[in-house]
Structure formats: structure tokens, C-alpha cells
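S.,

Sequence below, as promised.
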Amino acid sequence: MQRPQARRYRCLLAAQAAEDLVTGMGVPWRRSADEFARILRKHGQELAAVTDVAAAWRAFREFLHVEIEGLVPEPDADVDGFIVQWGRNSWHGGRRCVSFTRQLAVPSGGGDPQPDYWQVDLTLVFDDAAGLAVLESGHESDTRFFFRPIGPQRDDAVAEAGRYPQLHAALTARPAHSHLSFDRVC
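The prediction came back faster than expected:
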């Protein structure tokens, strides 16, 4: 049974997201993780229990096209980008994982000319399975960062990221667990 506060919070998020879509406004950067969570739920996935990696990938692709407000206003800087990472990490109990990450550059709060970087990250952790050995093969552990504007250029970047065999292998696997984080990275 859901607590009333949690249900009320989700209703407020959904109402605000709908209002933002109607008014044509983007999502404030501090609410970007909430927006990704809303999109994941729309695709039938829960943050801590993603069961369909392909649905999570579709949700991430949709999230990459959401305008985010409050970013550094430098058009040529690495302001809004994404990366897909994979491998086996000690901080996930030595298990294989895949992460879908969107990185945002926001003005520093202390007047520093360097922006602060925040990441919205969905990590999917897998039990060992033969089909996922590709996550540890080769020299690549990520797609590299793509910082292309929303629209056709971002579509091209998403298509390029989607060609990696590591991502293809993960799309058919079932995660043991997952989590969404929103952290300042530097």
C-alpha cells in the first residue's frame, strides 16, 4: 500500500509535467531525475525494479529529447549530453551493469566561472549470464559522451549509441535490480 505522501508527490509531478508540456516549457534541471522517473513509469518500469531493458532504453531516448531549463547558456560547451556505460564494477558487488546517463552543466552556485556537472543515471545491474559476457569483452566500456543539440543531431547520436553490441546484449537481459540517481559529479 502506498503512503499518501508518495501518492500525492507522484500526482504533483505528473500534474506539473503535464502543465510544462502544455505551456511548452522545459523541465527545471533540479527536477530532471523526477522527469526521467515519470517517463520510466510511463513505459511500465519502476526505478528500483526495471524488468525490461528495452523499455528503459526507449524511456531514456525519450528523456534525451526533454528540454531542460537552467543550464549554462554557452551553446558550444558540453552543456547537455549523454553516455551509455557497461562493465563489471566493485560498487555493484562485482556484477555486470549498464548505465544510461544524461549529464547537465549548470551555473556554479558560488560565482565560479566553471559550471557544476550533474548526472541523471539509471543503472541496471545483472546477475551473471552467458549472454552478457560481451559487457566485459573488448576495450570499450562506454559509447563516449555525445553533446549534440536536441533534434536531428541528437537522434543521430542516439542511433550511433544504439549500434554497440554491448547495448544490444543488455536489451534482451533481465536486470537483478536497478536504481536512478541524480548526483553532482564535479
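Residues 1-23 have pLDDT under 50 and may be disordered.

Coffee later?
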